[in-house]
Amino acid sequence: MVLPESTARSERDGSSNYDVIVVGAGFAGLYMLHRLRDAGYRVKCFEAGSGPGGTWYWNRYPGSRCDIHSLGYSYAFSAELEQEWEWSEMYAAQPEIERYANHVADRFELRRDIQFNTRVVSGTYDEAGRAWTIKTDTAETASTRYLVMATGGYSIPAKPQIEGIGSFKGEAYFTNQWPLHEVDFTGKRVGIIGTGSSGTQTATAVAAEPIKHLYVFQRTANFIVPGWNAPATPEYTREFKAGYAKFRETARWSGNGTVFPQVSTLPKLTTGPIADLDADALKERLEQLWVTGGLYFFGGVSDLMTSEAANTRVSDFFRQKTRDRVRDPKLADLLTPRGFFIGERRIIADNGYLEIFNRDDVSLVDVKSDPITAVTPSGVKTRDGEYPLDILIFATGFDSGTGAMLNIDLKGRNGKRFADKWADGPLTYLGLMANDYPNMFMIAQPGSPSIRSQVLVSIEQHVDWIFDMLQHAREAGVVEIEASREAEEAWTKHVSDVAAKSLFARADTQYVGANIPGKPRVYLAYLGGVGVYRKTCDTVRENGYEGFILKAASKDLTKSKTWAGAGETPLVWGTAV
Ligand code: N01
């Protein structure tokens, strides 16, 4: 195999020069490393954790579980891997997903090029050398022509602004930085702050432990749909695997990448709009959504995010279902979401969460009406009460989307700080690159479907696209790739225009940065849908990488600095199952 010039050079002088440095060994980083190394690039991956898996490594809290069928929430790039890996449950728990990440690392011999326990803290672009130099928290330095940020959308914990947060004398944990050791809940008074996906899963699992008492501190009640987790039976697995090719292809061109499997052991999901259905037809469709469970009704109700009438019908139905599951009407009322549309905030797929509130040793503390005023050495203080605790768990979310990119001190052309570039919100072309930051790619970051998509679908699409671009660069002798300012401006406007058409951009959610004080209000993900987005990226490639500035050693190979545009983009995020 003919190695790229930089490879040959670095192998000769033994320096830490790479063709590509990949930051992060989550699902994005693992696949990027695999593709590039297979094609002969000299690649190094740095990972802060002690093992692979990224988000699924760090979020090892009790009850952590996937809420999309695991046979779908897995890599599609290898038919052998697809067939050989056996999921034990329809919705796998974190330990099994982490085992899967480890299996992938072993099967494709990725570990030898991953340096674990090493966090990349900075990256500086050298314009003359057309290369990046990164530094790590282990005081290492390495250079690379290309930098790929596989840093995830949910990597940096949000820091709750609560007085005295560090003063608690008992055991304190963040769900997204859960320790590797076992936590013993026996006979303990446990408090959980936060009732998003992480908090509700943790609460359900902790309630199953021999605790003394569990206090769930809820500020906002979320929409809860049943997860219907069950063992992955041999028939279900066999049938799913037999239909893999079609399933994967449908997901690639779908709305948000989440596709309900057409497997005979599962209920059938009908798709289409519901705003105009008559009462009987509506009831039938909504009950079908209930037995289907999970997050699939984004596909099942195609007008969910564009029609207030449709959304209200679904929202009211799920509100009633919540009330039906909780015996005490006062508690049921507190647990019922109100004031926003279903889907605006992350929907929660539960497996018995609401029922824990039918027990005497579990209490809901409504911190909307009685706000938390402080964490004290002995527990949590609210305006009207005090809750002594042995264990306090923060399930308080993430600096979503932008957090990880901004956590690394990146300097592009003329030493320009990336944090300054994104000070008013993310600016990208296709979510893949940013002007003034040549040779730096991003996987599933803001400006792409990212945190509002089935992220494995998004990751594979990005990795394949970046790989094609690097192959093109290699063949054409390109040494510098950069998003043009014009294309970046046009794309960023497009992302914002598409979001403005959706009901979902209105609420104060993590998706607009509202959970982090001072974060600019920008819809962080592209809502055109993964299929539309894929088509757009493919067209850009077919048009000779329009919108990208491509420089060979002494020649400008740029085809066009402008992006031709996506035309009229239908809002299909919630459609196409
Ligand atoms: O975080 P969140 P998450 N006082 O931001 C509350 C993915 N995920 O880790 O809503 C009191 O959703 C906050 O209250 P409010 C998934 O994509 C997937 O749960 O701001 N409460 C909220 O209840 C998801 O979108 C899976 O009023 C405070 C909670 O903390 C993403 O990760 C599992 C507070 C934060 O909820 C993030 O989910 C887990 C305060 N000071 C996660 N500060 C699955 O696949 C914050 N809160 C199933």
Structure explained in plain terms:
This protein has 577 residues and is an alpha/beta fold. It is 30% helix and 16% strand. The chain is built from 17 helices and 20 strands. The strands form five sheets. Strands 1, 2, 3, 4, 5, 6, 17 and 18 form an eight-stranded mixed beta sheet that branches. Strands 7-16-8-9-12 form a five-stranded parallel beta sheet, covered by helices on one side. A hairpin with a 2-residue loop joins strand 13 (372-376) and strand 14. The radius of gyration is 24 Å and the shape is globular. The relative contact order is 0.13. Residues 1-14 have low confidence and may be disordered. The structure holds 3-acetylpyridine adenine dinucleotide (N01). The site of 3-acetylpyridine adenine dinucleotide has 26 residues, from helix 6.
Largest sheet: 8 strands, mixed
Number of helices: 17
What overall form do the CA principal axes indicate?
A: globular
Low-confidence residue ranges: 1-14
Cα-to-Cα separation, first versus last residue: 42 Å
* Strand segment tally: 20
What tags apply to this protein structure?
577 residues, alpha/beta, eight-stranded mixed sheet, five-stranded parallel sheet, 17 helices, 20 strands, 30% helix, globular, disordered N terminus, binds 3-acetylpyridine adenine dinucleotide
Question: Topology of this structure?
Answer:
Layout: H1 5-13, E1 17-23, H2 27-38, E2 43-46, H3 55-58, H4 79-84, H5 94-107, E3 114-115, E4 120-126, E5 131-136, E6 141-149, E7 171-174, E8 189-193, H6 197-207, E9 213-218, E10 224-226, H7 234-242, H8 244-252, H9 279-292, H10 297-300, H11 308-325, H12 329-334, E11 348-350, E12 362-366, E13 372-376, E14 379-382, E15 386-388, E16 391-394, H13 403-406, E17 409-411, H14 418-421, E18 440-442, H15 455-476, E19 478-483, H16 485-500, H17 530-542, E20 548-552
Parallel strand pairs: 1-2, 1-6, 2-3, 4-17, 6-18, 7-16, 8-9, 8-16, 9-12, 10-11
Antiparallel strand pairs: 4-5, 5-6, 13-14, 14-15, 19-20
Helix pairs in contact: 2-15, 15-17
The chain binds 3-acetylpyridine adenine dinucleotide (N01).
Residues 65-67, 154, 160, 162, 193-199, 201, 217, 219-220, 346, 367, 372, 395-398, 510, 515 line the site of 3-acetylpyridine adenine dinucleotide.
